Amino acid sequence: MDPSDDQDAAIRTPDYLADEIVGLIGVITRLMLFGFLLALAVIAERAFRQAGGNVAVAQLTVPVTWAFTPFVLLTCAHYVYAASLLRSIREYRDRESEPEKRNGLFRRVSSQTGVFTLGLRPAQPDKGRRVYQRSFKDPSMGLEVSGAILLAGATIPWHLTPPGTLTLASGWPSWLAWAAAAVTVVLNWLLVSTWVARLSEIVTLPPACSSPRPYRS
């Protein structure tokens, strides 16, 4: 065995992994919040101004025509952090066997990592089916649905023309925007669904039974 593996195992204790999970989810929820605010700004720009113009959020200024580009970048960042988060969750799930500590980690996530996970409830596995379900009573679920709708509204190339007619943009940038809308909405939804389901396994399944499951809202 490589000595570095022993050293890594000594460092990455269950408590260390719990802190890492909380930190990674905190980063992801901040990315989601920034995207949420940016989507609101883009939609307002499209609704109250004619075609063209810029939108600015937190020192970032983007032409409305190319407003989909920061959402693509945010989605890429979400993917990178989610991949790291899933590895940490899997490692924590394999190493931590005490139910109280597992429950404590989930409570930390649902109370300390940001508005998009505030009040998060464990996704419940369906009996006899390899899917998870979440309740719409979960406040974080409502924010995630709202975020997906706003993301679609911000990336689809539209604007209002007097007297309030909805007009879809034309030209090759609009085709890129349609493609970006489809990819970013679907990929972000799948990423959130996956890491919420995996996180839920920490408290819904005993250590020996934890296994990957698809997710259904």
Automatic annotation (TrEMBL):
TM spans (from-to): 21-44, 64-86, 141-160, 172-192
Keyword list, A-Z: Membrane, Transmembrane, Transmembrane helix
Protein name listed in UniProt: RDD family protein
Source taxonomy: Bacteria, Bacillati, Actinomycetota, Actinomycetes, Micromonosporales
